[in-house]
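Issue 218. Parser rejects a valid record. Input:
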Amino acid sequence: MHNNFQNYYDWLKARYKSIFIFTVLSFVFGCIYIALSTPEYSVTVAINQKSDQQEALNSSSIVSLALGQSSQNASKFYYEFSEALFSMEVTENYEKKNDAINQFFGSFYNKTTNEYDPIWNFSTRLNSLKFFLLGVPYKPVPNKFLLNSLIRGSISVQYDEYADLLYLTAYTGSPDQIKKMIRELIEETDNFFKKSERNQINERIEFLTSELKSIDSIAQRDAISEILQNQLLKKSLINTKELYKILIVRDIEVSEYPVTPNIMFILFLFLSMGLFLSVGYHSYQFVIQKIEWD
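Output the parser choked on:
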């Protein structure tokens, strides 16, 4: 056994030049990979649920109990916000107001046919093969569904349980464009919440108004009047252009320098791969040629 290890060491030692050359080549490939990579900047914004108007409007326990409202932390708001942000409704409104498909896929627009050409890359060709096997026609033309996929792939939503905040993060080579997209998507997501709240408030106002007309008790009329006043105030807040449910805790920030690619990690990875592959290859040759099997 000792002789085998000594022979193995001598075998590798005699081939140190080829191991060194292969490792250096791997390092060079790593440098080429870094040179061809697109530098990406970090774009982040911290948000939370805006509760100022909730606290002001729900100061009365009667109002809170009557409407079934309670405080809501960011963990629950995280799921509501994520579902709204990545919904097709928000994507469609974002596209209508900002011509987003043309902003992101304008280079694929064919002026001759006045249509968008299909986007063919490795991912879309794999999808084409998959849907071909399923017997489903597939054509990766820029549309609202592709825009929604772009939004989902560009932005991540994370919840920090210690800060009780939501962070929207994107890594991109076009920080100004993505910064603008995040800002506009936040507005459209807030409009999504406004629409939902507006419908509920209108129903409450209609119900409370009818109840107020049919009740004779002064105490009950005062209680319903207070609740009705609360709902009318909320309606006035919803109809403003200000953000209603989303609070910008920290405005959108862009990193000063690119955060990816991670040069040191990539170089170490290529060096390690070159070293282990070369040593592995010569180890395989040693086992085949020098080890005697009974």
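Fixed in the parser; the record now loads. Residues 52-71 have pLDDT under 50 and may be disordered.
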